[in-house]
Amino acid sequence: MNATKRIVLIGPPGCGKGTQAKRIEEATGMVQLSTGDMLRAAVAAGSPIGLKAKAVMEAGQLVSDDLIIGMVADRIKQPDCAKGFILDGFPRSIPQAEALARMLAENQQPMNGAIEIRVPDQFIVERITGRYTCAKCGAGYHDKFQKPKQDGVCDKCGASEFSRRKDDNEETVRTRLGAYHDVTAPIVGFYEKGGILKVVDGTQAIDDVTKSIMGVLGSL
Ligand code: AP5
Ligand code: MG
Fold it and tell me: Taking the CA of residue 156 as centre, how many other CA atoms within 13 Å lie in the half-sphere pointing to its CB?
C-alpha cells in the first residue's frame, strides 16, 4: 500500500477514532494527528494554547477554529507527516474542513479519503465512561470491550498506572455529542460532495472495524 496517504477519521466521541488511528499508524507508518491529544498535552504543559483550551474541553465544548487551525497548520509541516497522516478529531467544523483543504492545496497534497466511523448515539455513553488509558504509554483500554490481558497491567509497556479523561463523564459526553451533531456532522456532507467519503460500521468489534478501515485504505 502506498503509505503517503492523507485521511480524515470522522465520528462522534467514542466511535473509535483514536483506537483505529493507532492501529493504522502501526500497520502503515502513517502518522496519527489527534487534535484532542495535542490539546491535552498543551493543557498538561500549561502552554498558552492549553490555558485557553482547558475549561472549554472540560465543559465538552469545541475549542475555537482559529486556535485549532493554527495548531494543525504547524503540525502538518513537520517532516514526519511526509509519510502520510491520519487526522483524528480534525476537522470538526466546516471552517476547519475548508482551512484544511486550503492548507493541502498550498502544498499540492490531495486528501485521499474521509472515513466516517458510524456509531449511533445509544452506544456512546458506555464506550466513553468505560474508557481508560495507560498513564505511561497512552495505550487505550475499556472496562468491558478492551481489557488488558492481565488485570491492571498494560499489554504494551507493562506499566500499572492508568488514567481517565476529565471529560469522560456522562454529563460532558452528552454536551460533546450535541457539539458533534450540531457543528461536526456537516463535514460528512462536505466530504461526500467532494467524492472522497467512505463509511464504516463502527458498531462492529474493534478488530472488525480495523479490517473494514484497512479495506477502505487499500481501495484509495
Ligand atoms: P477528542 O480527544 O478528539 O475527543 P472526541 O472526539 O470526543 O473523541 P474521543 O477521543 O472521546 O473518542 P474516540 O473516537 O477517539 O474513541 P476511542 O478510540 O478512544 O477531543 C476532546 C476535546 O478536545 C473536544 O471535546 C474539544 O473540546 C477539543 N477538540 C479536539 N479537537 C478539536 C477540534 N478539531 N476543534 C475543536 N475542538 C477540538 O474509543 C472510546 C472507547 O471505546 C475506548 O475505551 C475503546 O477501547 C472503546 N472502543 C473503541 N472502538 C470500539 C468498538 N468497535 N467496540 C467496542 N468498544 C470500542
Ligand atoms: Mg480520541
Answer: 14
Euclidean distance between CA atoms 204 and 80, whole angstroms = 31
72 Cβ closer than 6 Å to some ligand 1 atom: no
Ligand 1 atom nearest to CA at 131: 44
pLDDT tens digits for 50-90? 999 999 999 999 999 999 999 999 999 999 999 999 999 99
Cis, peptide link before residue 91, omega less than 30° from 0: yes
pLDDT tens digits, one per residue of 96-142: 999 999 999 998 899 999 999 999 999 999 999 999 999 999 999 99
Q: Which residues are designated catalytic? A: 17, 92, 131, 165, 176
> Can you give the three-state secondary structure of the chain, one letter per residue?
CCCCCEEEEECCCCCCHHHHHHHHHHHHCCEEEEHHHHHHHHHHHCCHHHHHHHHHHHCCCCCCHHHHHHHHHHHCCCHHHHHCEEEECCCCCHHHHHHHHHHHHHCCCCCCEEEEEECCHHHHHHHHHCEEEECCCCCEEECCCECCCECCECCCCCCCCEECCCCCCHHHHHHHHHHHHHHHCHHHHHHHHCCCEEEEECCCCHHHHHHHHHHHHHHC
